[in-house]
Predict the structure of Reverse transcriptase domain-containing protein.
Amino acid sequence: NLLTEREHGFLAGRSTTTALTDLVEHIINNIEEGKNVTSTFLDLSKAFDCLDHRLVLAKISSLGIKDTALQWFKSYLSERKQVVTVQQTINGITRTAISPPLAMTRGVPQGSVLGP
């Protein structure tokens, strides 16, 4: 099992509400036992957009994925580019501007079977 029992993201029946409930229960239990309680909160917005491809591939390899499967993941993350397209219609005339392609060396494709 790759996920801890404390994981709440991307799991059926778990959410920020269940995470908060677990946290409050943990705090109350520790206070009742006379222990100090310290919390750190991180905002990981856009976390999947920040993943370095080399680190993702190293982690996949450390989990035992090798050879052809590892090369497939490497191919999946390699040579990815993005562009920004802007359309504007004025007086019935539509104009489109497309930015130059930008190589993507970070982030994983989202909304797919392999992505978040």
